[in-house]
Design goal:
The protein has 299 residues and is α/β, with parallel strands linked by helices. It has one domain: Ribokinase (UDP-N-acetylmuramoyl-L-alanine:D-glutamate ligase), CATH 3.40.1190. Helices cover 30% and strands 25% of the residues. The strands form 2 sheets. A 9-stranded mixed beta sheet has the order 5-4-1-8-9-10-11-12-13, with helices on both faces. A 4-stranded mixed beta sheet has the order 3-2-6-7. The longest helix is centred in the C-terminal third of the chain and has 15 residues.
Amino acid sequence: MIVVFGSINVDLVARVQRLPSAGETLAGRSFAMLPGGKGANQALAASRAGSDVHLFGCVGHADGLAPVALREISRSSIDVAGVVECDGTTGVALIHVDDEGENCITVVPGANARARASQIPDAILSRDTTVLLQLEVPVDDVALLARRARLCGARVVLNAAPATRLAPRLFDEIDVLVVNESEALTLAEMAGTNIHDAVRKLASASRNVVVTRGAHGALYVQRGELCMQRAPRIDAVDTVGAGDAFTGALAAALDRGDDFTTAVREGAAAGALACLTPGAQTSLPDRQSIVQMAATLFN
């Protein structure tokens, strides 16, 4: 079982020819209002990859956006009993996507700032549980839940995004760290350094690290060995949600008991598949598609 504690957003997506420069106004080609948030995205990614998922977080009731934020989640098998409706607005992400599929994002936390680790009961945390975390809800509560999860014997997977420095009390509770290249360099405090050195610094005897690199695949460390996973060759339509697809599929594979190399391979397959369809949640692939794509990635 996977327990996800994280953000639940509405994505406000504008398609543009190119990303705007500072102070520039561009005419957009289209607009869509879609469910998103790293917590919700990764919960749905893990569910579609075949896992039993319980989602914990907060939505607001002041703006009418909660039903939009939970639209895809409500159509899935995800247990949402732990999603709390609170005062204020639902979190939103303002997203520009250009013709090359690249994006820039501004996140307004809204109700996500009121998510608390106390929403998750100890009874749901055990050796049979994988706890999946990100940093779009209060970091202190992420750290509290990570500590509780480890004490209960659960596996802790942290996608350390958005990039920020982590307090040692959180960093030391992580079994698996998932970051992109810029996030890895921020965490390692090694800006401008070779990414391989940063990955090695972040890993430990008890912590595996995965660094996603888009079209260049992923670097990962397990048991002290630095490895590389290539990415599928695709024509990306929209990279929004690719990292969440990777992380959710990786967590699902680990929760099933697959080895780490297999989990990274399935994460790479899911991330690539998510780039083929617009939207963060509508693009998340199912288990069969992931397995088929992963079978093409054996090194």
